[in-house]
Amino acid sequence: MSSSIEVKKKKVKPALGLIEFVSLMALMTSLVALSIDAMLPALDQIGKDLAIVDPQQTHLIVSLFFIGMGFGQLYYGPVSDDKGRRYAIISGLIIFAIGSVVCMFAETLTVMLIGRVIQAFGVSGPRIAALAVIRDQYEGDAMARVMSFIMMVFILVPMLAPSFGQAILFMFSWHHIFSSFLVIGLLTGIWFFIRQPETLPKEKRKPFSWPQLWISSKFILTHKLVMFYTIAMGLIFGSFLAYISASQTLFQHVYDTGEMFPLYFALLAFSIGLASFINGTLVMRLGMRLLCNWAIFGWLVFSILLTVLCVIYDGIPPLWQFVSVLFCAFFCIGILFGNVNSMAMQPLGDMAGLGAAIIGSMSSLFSVPTAVLVGSFIEDTVTPVAIGFVVFGALSLSFYWFAEQKPKLQ
After folding, report:
1. Which of 131, 122, 71 is closest to 351 using CA atoms?
2. Does the domain made of 16-195+213-409 have the CATH classification 3.40.50.620?
3. Distance CA 333, CA 341 (A)
4. What would the 3-class secondary structure string for the chain be?
5. Which residues of 206-230 are buried (b: 16+ CB within 10 A; e: fewer)?
6. Rounded to whole angstroms, how far apart are CA atoms 346 and 116?
């Protein structure tokens, strides 16, 4: 193994207080959730205005967003290691703004999807560089703790974003949802530029070169522990993304909740935030692996329970049962998200930027087809969601188990 890979660096002392640091990093990473969840109440209106014949095609506005993220993360990983974290974040926010403008003036589904891919490519900069900034300053269980607190703040966005989008629709049109993205992105960029110093000094940067990219990428892609955790995370997130993409259909069409949809969505998002808070308080004491072991089994158990309810009630369990089971299942996901990502990042050291890029891209590579596959079967029941949770939950458990067999894999 290359000695450059094995060199350990001195951790950069955090420049901001924990509360401000967590808030800023959460805001930058939450631009992804905002760009997705604020759109959910507007999907029907967008479908009508863009003359979309098949309602299921509107799900692509959500799911294909992650295609742009996949490519964006591969680009911004090496860029953040070469030019620094600040460059990656600011340039990404500029591209995010361009994509938002394209979406704002879209008159066809094709233009809308192009704008969404550009948006996603740009927002990958803040997302990847923010993870690298965290990794620059924290590691191990301490990083998992910070990630959990970031997830706790971060989860407020999906809780509030559908209501935010709904409020804009009451007063304006869906076009103004994208104009709000411009304002929020601008304020985020100003806050970051003024308050957060560069965490990757010039002497620590890795100038881009194809040979070095090949060496580093080969190390990451052949690191079985990193890859198994990444695949497990991608399958879990793919199942969750299928729910996100179809949530408007499930709540407003299957269960006819009407304008109450944002409240149900917020309730289920709260379960993830609650899990992240509890995880942040326990991870330093119990360790992230023990928590993940319980959470991944819990996720599969509640997925099986939801499937059983679908069989009993012909695909449409009572709303309170559906929400209750998802609340418990998403609580388990809240434990898994930050911890599994931290475990995948832990061996990567100075390659935090490229590592975050490859892990994020690989996660998208598995999550987007998973979400599109499950979403293609969703029409008038929740059974496809339940079956998808079980199938991909079992697969994710298998890869997670393989990753945990470290003595045999290293």
Report:
1. 131
2. no
3. 12
4. CCHHHHCCCCCCCCCCCHHHHHHHHHHHHHHHHHHHHCCHHHHHHHHHHCCCCCHHHHHHHHHCHHHHHHHHHHHHHHHHHHHCHHHHHHHHHHHHHHHHHHHHCCCCHHHHHHHHHHHHHHHHHHHHHHHHHHHHHCCHHHHHHHHHHHHHHHCHHHHHHHHHHHHHHHHCCCHHHHHHHHHHHHHHHHHHHHHCCCCCCHHHCCCCCHHHHHHHHHHHHCCHHHHHHHHHHHHHHHHHHHHHHHHHHHHHHHCCCHHHHHHHHHHHHHHHHHHHHHHHHHHHHHCHHHHHHHHHHHHHHHHHHHHHHHHHCCCCCCHHHHHHHHHHHHHHHHHHHHHHHHHHHHHHHHHHHHHHHHHHHHHHHHHHHHHHHHHCCCCCCCHHHHHHHHHHHHHHHHHHHHHHCHHHHC
5. beeeeebbebbbebbeebebbbbbb
6. 31
Angle of CA points 24, 226, 9, to nearest 5°: 60
Q: Rounded distance, CA 298 to CA 320, Å?
A: 20
Q: Would you give per-residue pLDDT tens digits along the chain (410 residues)?
A: 444 433 344 455 556 777 788 888 888 888 888 898 898 888 888 988 998 877 678 878 887 888 888 888 888 888 888 888 999 999 999 999 999 999 999 999 999 999 999 999 999 999 888 878 887 877 766 676 777 677 666 667 777 888 899 899 989 999 999 999 999 999 999 999 988 888 888 888 877 777 767 777 787 778 888 888 888 888 888 888 888 878 888 888 889 888 788 888 888 888 887 887 788 778 778 878 888 889 989 999 999 999 999 999 998 999 999 999 999 999 998 888 778 877 887 777 666 666 767 777 777 777 777 777 777 777 788 998 899 899 888 888 888 888 777 544 44
> Hey, what are 98's tokens?
């361009």
Number of other CB atoms surrounding residue 105 within 10 Å: 11
CA 308-338-58 angle, to 5 degrees, is 60
In terms of Cα–Cα distance, which of 402, 65, 33 is closest to 232? 402
Alpha-carbon gap, residue 85 to 111, rounded angstroms: 31
Contact between 29 and 130 under an 8 Å Cβ cutoff? The reply is yes
Distance from chain centroid for Cα 68: 13
> Residue 124 has which token pair?
């990958």
